[in-house]
Amino acid sequence: MYIVSSETFFLWKQKQIMKGGDDKSLNLLIDSLGGLSKKELSLLKIKSEKWIPLKINLELLESFWDKHLISSIPIQYLSGISYWRDLKLEVSKKVLIPRPETELIIEIISTKFKNKREKITFVDLGTGSGAISIALALANPKWDGIATDIDKNALEIALRNFTANSNQSNLKFYHGNWWDPLKDFKSKIDLAVANPPYIPENTYKELPIEVKNFEPKNALLGGEDGLDHIKEIVQYAPSYLKEKGWLLIENHFDQGAKVKELFIKNRFTDVEVLKDLSGIGRFTIGRYK
Fold it and tell me: In the chain, where are the structural domains located?
């Protein structure tokens, strides 16, 4: 533990922002590596504390900040930590950094499954860091969860994240592409959710450096029109879902109408395109027959 005066710390913080970057990213670095959350920092200001405890010294923190400014590498990959909802997750370049808009998936599902005592089986296809599957498993201890991923490294990270955030045992991890590892679960799944790669090729080329240069391409690129993986997931979903089972997919901001059409074509009913907090049709949900 390192103790610095509040005067020294806030002068240091001001100096870092003057170099470039933004306050949100710097606060994330201070939180994930320095061990001082934005909330704790605000309280220290209010209380006019003279001394501030940090996990690492300011020189080391500054070296990480400089690396972020020079290379554009995301803070989450520098620290190996990402915060999502109330979860603290391990991340690496093997997994996508979970996005704030994806958090709405949990809220959408909670409105469809209001009976917390109901026992259901859900699957998170392409789980990555495990964010969605872990949040669902923790919020619904009676549910049986399955998380799949084509990347063994990602699955290992997701498993560690579940173990670190929970003492529950209601989430299992299967290696394989989309539905492939779930042959024993045909017609047994009540809910399937996926945040698949959906970025079209032309859009991918224009992504910011911090995304394109560091986040896994196979977790972002969805083919020429961005729909390659979504088509596969929707097409095979009827074999795995129970009758009246739900499928929820996150899609690109301009894909809602096309994804809805795919759902209907594959015999889904009650199909809706739901908006994120920016008013964008980000999620498509439907019920199988």
Answer: 2-71, 85-288
pLDDT, residue 285, reads 97
Alpha carbon 174 to its chain centroid, in Å, reads: 18
Contacts of 192 (CB under 8 A, 6+ apart): 122, 123, 125, 233, 237, 240, 241, 245, 246, 247, 248
Q: What is the mean pLDDT of residues 225-253?
A: 97
pTM of the model: 0.92
96, HSE (Cβ side, Cα atoms, 13 Å): 21
1-29 tens-digit pLDDT: 889 888 899 899 999 999 998 899 999 99
Could you tell me the two tokens for 171?
């989430």
The three-class DSSP label of residue 213 is coil
Percent of the chain with pLDDT over 70: 99
Fold of 85-288: Rossmann fold (3.40.50)
Long-range contacts of 198-202 (CB under 8 A, 24+ apart): 198/222, 198/226, 198/227, 198/229, 198/230, 198/250, 198/251, 198/252, 198/255, 199/226, 199/252, 200/224, 200/225, 200/226, 200/252, 201/226
Q: Is 286 left (phi over 0), alpha (psi -120 to 50) or beta?
A: beta
